[in-house]
Structures are given as structure tokens and as C-alpha cells.
Amino acid sequence: MTRGQYVEPRFLRRNLHWVAWEGVAYSVMVGIGETYLAALSLAAGLGGLVAGLITTVPVVGGSLLQMLSPWGVGYCKSYRRWVALSVGMQAVSLVWLTLMTHADRVNTWELFAVATLYWAGGLSAGPAWNAWVEHLVPRRIRPTYFAKRSRYCQIGVLAGTVAGGVLLRWQGAQYTVTTFARLFGIAAVCRFASVTLLTAQSETPSWMQREPRPSGSITNNWRAIADWDHGTRSLVLYLMAMQTAVYISSPYFTPFMLRVLNLNYLQYMYLISMGFAGKTLANRWAAHFARQWGADRLLWIGGLGIIPLAGMWLVSRDLWFLTIVQVVGGALWACYELSMLLLFFERIPKPKRVEVLSIYNVGNSVAMLIGSLLGAAILYSFGASGHAYLMVFLASSLGRGLTLFLLPRSDQQTHLFGEVVNRIIAVRPGMGFIQRPIVSTLESTARIEPNQPDRPRNDANSAMAS
């Protein structure tokens, strides 16, 4: 009996129904809530530096708190309890944001605190949820089911993003801060709906007994870096360097668009949506290219393509030109992110994936923070003027170009096939959206060797790494 077949048949249809609707509720929450956090800080008069750093500093704090997730699952002795508790924490943070903005007064420290709570809840829920859904959804239907669910979620994120932009524009600039209270209030309702849908799903205590309890051996993971082979180290080093260069500019697109270009909220929402659309449309093509030519070559396309993207904002401020930049940029980001994911599972041996992904997740957040601080230093040095933002974009493109020296060579690795399914965790201008893989679907994308039995995947720790 394989994982995902422990659910009694009479509960299976109900579980599939609730998992799908929970994903939609979560996606709308991301689109109408987290997407506009940087815009809120600008509306509250906190400035472009705060608007940029609010998208990175809390993520680092949340990722560090995420390390408690293995302990939390063990303490609760239940995936469902821990996921519902973490998601509830995220819902409470949105209520806090609603009250804060409804009072028409936003403090910088309070905004960072609530954003950290938001990311801590979301990131802590992810690993346990990945392990839980392997039991809820049978292995034979996971790729098809989650691919369909992912499309619904993309529609949900886009609908939330559009609704937020329309609502902000409709209310007018004089009511912006209190309008954000409505946005985050809707997001909180969606997240509390997620809690309800999560608790309605099945869980059998014997699941936890069948699997080794996730361990928080983070210290051992860090010590294991010395045992990594050259290919693993070079891949992780390249990804960290690229992430640092990207986040020199990425957090500052929102203040640039709203304060320097003076876009209204409809135009801002439109440009974000174009990046989203470009990434969505390119995902299927990128997967086909990876199957035909390999993830290593796809990484070269994505890695080279995203180098000039930030610098393209120096060329023109015309809305139609920026639309093209966003659509093409979203497509190139789709290539980069899919190749990155596939190379993790092609080049890194299965026994080392947990430690590599655990370290990468923390290192990725640290790289985001370092990049955003470098961008903040440039903005501060040039007085946070329009010229300063352009210098930030130029520095980001130059930094991305320097990563070419670290870009792994194409060496004809074995190819993965099948549709890789991700879940959206955030939307970012210039990048479309940030995704994380649904780990249980990756088993179906890996090449199955002849005469290899389809054994149960008795490894809870691998799910805890995403």
C-alpha cells in the first residue's frame, strides 16, 4: 500500500474537495493581501526603503521561526493540528493588519512585527502540509489533481490581485490607508476559511506512527556542507549569488512604480498581473523544453535572460514598453525557477536532498536580505530620488551578470519528465510570483527505472524540507 492510500474511500472525495477549496481561499488571500503590503507602507508615508525591506526582512525572520516546524509537528503529534495552528497564526496577523490600517496609523516596528508573524505562520505550515497531503491524495492521481488545483490557485491569486487594485483605485487616494483595512480584512476572512477547510480534512493518528518523526537536526545539516560534492556546492553558490543580485532591485519596484512613475493602483495591478501572466503562460513550455533538452540548458536560458531585466526599466517609462518587459520577464523567470527546482532533484542525491534544501531555504532568505540591504544602501546614498532607483536597477543587472562566472556548465544530466506542480506563496513585481514545489508530486516527475517497484515513500523528513 503506497502513501496516499491510507484514507478510507468514503473520505477520499471529501478530502479532495476540501484540499482544492483551501488552495483557492489561500490564493485569494495572497493576491488581495500580501501583494499590497509594500503599497500599504507607502500609503502610510513610511517611505521607499521601508516598502522595500518589508518584503525581505520579515521573510528572514519567518524562515528562522520555520525551523521550529519539525518540533511543532512532533509536539502536536498531528500534521493537521500544526498546519491549522500555523495558518491560524497567519490569519491573526492579517486581523492585526486590518486593525492597524483601520486606525489610519501605521508604525514601522509594528508593520515589521506583523509581517514577520505572517511569514512565520505561512512558512511553518508549508513543510507539514506537504507531508500531510501525501496521505490525503492518492499517488496515482497527484500530478493531475495538483496540476488542476494549481491552475485554480493561479486564477485565485490573479483575481485577488485585480480586486485589490480595483478597490484601491475606486476608493481614491484620500481613503487609501483605510481601504487597505478592507483588503486585509478580506484576506483574513479567506485565511480563516482556510483554517476551517483544513480542520475538515481527514487525519489518522497511525500516519505519524508509520513514519520517522521529523527531527530538527539543523546543526547536523550545516555540518554536512563539508561533505557536499563540487556540483552541489557550485549549484547552491550560483543560486545564492543570483538571489542576492536580484534582490538588490526586486523589493524596490513597488515604490518606484507608485512614487517615481506615479502609477495609479490600477496600472500597478496591471503590471504585476502581466508578470504573473507571462510566468503562467511559459510554465508549460519550460517543462517541455526541460524534458527535451535538459534542466541544465533551461537554466542557461533563464539565467542569461533575467540578467538585463532590471536594467530594462532604464530604457523607457512607457506603460506598453513596461508591459512587454513584465511579460517577457515572467516567462524568463519561469524558465529559471523550474530549472532550479529540477536541478535540485537531478544533481543532488536523494539522501542529501533534505539537508541541501533545508540549508538552501535559510540561505535563500539571507541572500534576499543581503540584496535588499545593498539596494537600500544605494538608495540612501543617492537620496532615494528617481535617479537613485535607476542606479539600484543598474546595480542589480550588473550583479546578475557577474553570476555568469558561477553558472553551472551543461553536462547532460538525466532529465525529469512530467508536470512539476508548485504552490504560490507570494507575488512580486518583476518576478511574477514566488513558488514552492508540492513535494508529493515530485515522485511522479522522477524517472522510474525498469523493474523498480513502486514502494511507499516512508520519509517524512523529505517533505519537511520544502
Describe the structure.
The protein is mostly helical. Helices cover 70% and strands 3% of the residues. The relative contact order is 0.16. The N terminus and C terminus are likely disordered.
Structural class: mainly alpha
Output the CATH class name: Mainly Alpha
Q: Which percent band covers the strand fraction? A: under 5%
State the CATH topology: Growth Hormone, Chain: A
Q: Tell me the helix content.
A: over 70%
Strand tally: 2
What's the architecture, going by CATH?
A: Up-down Bundle
Could you state the CATH homologous superfamily? MFS general substrate transporter like domains
The value of Rg in angstroms is: 21 Å
The major β-sheet equals: 2 strands, antiparallel
Termini separation comes to 25 Å
Low-confidence stretches: 1-7, 212-218, 444-466
- The number of helical runs is 20
**Which outline best applies?**
globular
Give the helices and strands as they follow along the chain. Answer: HHHHHHHHHHHHHHHHHHEEHH
Number of domains: 1
